[in-house]
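Ex. 9. Protein: ZYBA0S03-04654g1_1.
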Amino acid sequence: MKRAGSEDSNGVITSTRGRKATKTHDSHILNHINDYMPYYVSVRPLDIFCWGTGSMCELGLGPLAKNKEVKRPRLNPYLPVDKVKIVSIAVGGMHTLALDAESNVWSWGCNDVGALGRSTAGADEQLKDMDADNSSDDEDGNLNDLESTPMMIPKQNLPPLQEGHKIIQLAATDNLGCALFDNSEIYAWGTFRCNEGVLGFYQDKIKIQHEPWKVPPFSKYKIVQMAPGKDHILFLDEEGVVFAWGNGQQYQLGRKVMERFRLKTLDPRPFGLKHIRFIFSGENHSFALTKEGKLYSWGLNQYGQCGVSEEIEDGALVTVPQEVILPEDVNVKWVSAGEHHSLLLTQDGDIYSFGRLDMHEIGIPKSDLPEETYKDVHGNARAVPIPTKLKNMPKFKTVAAGSHHSLAVAQNGIAYSWGFGETYAIGLGPAGEDVEVPTRIKNTATQNHNIVEIGGGGQFSVSGGIKLSDEDAEKRAEEMGDE
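Predicted C-alpha cells for ZYBA0S03-04654g1_1:
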C-alpha cells in the first residue's frame, strides 16, 4: 500500500494508514493528520505476535486447546508476512481486527455478538468430555476453529473496497468493529453492552449487527479519526468536532443520556466539544487533545483515571470534559487507557501515568509514589490521580493499555510491559505475577524485531513487528548488553 511520509531505515513511517490525497479536500485532511499522527504504520508487512489467555479465541493461534494460554509473544502462523501482509492492528476486549496491504480486514476472537464482522456458523468445536478419565482443567477441549483462526471479512460486505477506496483506520471495542474509509464512509458491526446486558447497535432499529453496515452520515465534514472504548466509540471530523456513540452510563459520551431515550439516541452525536486535534479513549472514560495542546477528559473517574483532580471519590464521574492536570512543559503525543488507569506519551518520549495501582497498572513503584497518592482508611496506596512521570525509563514511541495491564514500545523497537500478570497478557513468562514497573519483553520470537504496533485487550496482547537485518539485530544486542 502506498504510504505518505518519510520512511526510516526499518521501513516505518508516520502515516495516515494509507489515505490517498487525490483531491484538494483530501489533501487538507492528510496534512491535518500528519501534523500530529503519533504512531507508526509499516510500509512493509508486519509479523504478528499474540500472547495471554485466549479461552474466548482471543489469541487467534488456532483451535487447539494448548493455545489457550501463551505466556510469551508467539508468532501467529496464520498471518505469514509473505502472504497476508498485515500493516495495522486494532485490539478489542476479546477480539482483534487486522488490516492488510490490500485494505482487507481480518478478524479473530469472540463472535458471540457479531464483533468479527463475519459468520462463524458451522464451526468445528470439540468440547471437553467431562466423564473422560484423562480430562483435566488444563485441557478443556478445543476452541471454535472459525473464531480462533484469523479470517478475512468478505470483500462484498465492504462496498467501498469494490470502488477502489482504502480503509484508513480500524477500531475495536469489546463487542464492536469499525472501519473508516478514505471517503469518510464508516462501516460498523457488532453491538454495545451496558450494565444490564446488550444495549443495542443503532437506535432502536438494530440490536446486533453481524455483518459490516454503513453508518448513516452524522457530520457534514469528513471523519478523520476514531477512538474506541469498552462499549462506546468517539469520532473526530476534520473541523475538530467530536461525536460519541454507544453506552453512556458512566458519562463516557460526554453528555447525559436519559433512560427513556437511550435507544433513540443510540447513534453518533456531538456533545459540544470543538477545536479538537486528536481523540483517545479508555474503557469508560475519554480524552481529547485540543489544537492548542490542552488535554481534556470525561467519564468514570473513581480511581482518578481522568487526571482532573487530586481528590478521589468512590463512583466519581466527570460529567463534562475537564482539563487534565499536566506540567506546563508536557506536550501530549498519545493517550491510551484501560479500565481504571491511563497512560500519556509525550512528544519527548516520556510516559506519564495515573489511576489505579492495585495491580501495578500505572507502572510507578510503591517506593516512589507522589505526594498526591490516594490511600484508603488502612493506609494502603490505591491510586495516583495526577499524571506522574515514570522515572529511569528509555524513550518510547508508543503506548497501549489493556484492561489491567500496560504496554509500551521503546524508540529502538523493544517492547515493555507491566501490570496484572495472572492472565499472561504482559508476556513475561510463566510466573503469572503482577509486575510493578515497565519490564522488557525478551523472548526468542521477538528479540530480533522492531516492534511498531502494540495493543492490549482484556486478558491478552498483540504486537506487530518488522524483522531486523542481521547487522541491525547485532547492533541492538550490543547496545542492550545481550549475550
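Check your answer against this statement. Residues 12-480 form a domain with the Methylamine Dehydrogenase; Chain H fold (CATH 2.130.10.30).
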